[in-house]
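Team,

Forwarding the record for the chain on the shared tracking sheet. I've put the sequence and predicted structure together so nobody has to dig through attachments.
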Amino acid sequence: MYAALAILMDRRCMLCGDYVGQDCLCLHCRLLLPYVPRRGQTDNYIELRLAGSIPLQRAYSMVKYSSGTHCATILMAIKYYSASWSACKLGEMMAADATGSGFFATADVLQPVPLHIIRHLRRGYNQSERLAKGIGRISGLPVKSLVYRWKNTATQTEKTAEERKENMEGAFRGNRKRILKALQEARARGRQWLHIIIVDDVITTGSTIVGCAKAILDAVPDEAGDIRFSVMSLAVAGDLMMGRLTPEKLHLEDCSASSEEFLDWQHRPLA
């Protein structure tokens, strides 16, 4: 019956093409993904990368991006090949993975990184918004539009870190009325501050995330001190700082390890 339903729904794994029913990845392909170490936990690499640039609470990226890998295939599909439904399912995967670490405990709203209206119309959807929709289904958090894309920026692909930063300057504008309303709603729930989770498909230098957050803060300068941010992305690009190796991290009697044992630890999902 399950196989018949899978064929009827024509839901296939994004990577291997096997029927998966109401999902976007089969179990085998999920296990092959290069999961980010310490994802969802405090003081992880993504937090360290963004520290000091915005009032940051937590940061999460599910998988490591490298060109020519399964992760690159997934990102291309949700960004350029109309895999809107799959993006939503990936958002559900992200939220289910992050829930155990208490990532959503103090959060109020999800803010997907917006597309410019021209690019949105050409593509037909915003992949970050679809990820946020999936995250919202699991976390119960509402998806809001507190910021919009003011400038139709050129693609960030192939740009240096400095070029990415310059490209994003003035790209976003915060919606003051909506931000103030969200603040009021948070205060009515007894919150100390408004906690916004910014959602994107991939983090590279972090300039897009920072630009989006600063646009929100700039829209309400008198209330900026009462706003905090967390960040969620499907993927993160760049070298991951592993930190100091310890026997506890490697689950070994000492700190010596073969490359195979190290990779096994690096890609091991969190318990």
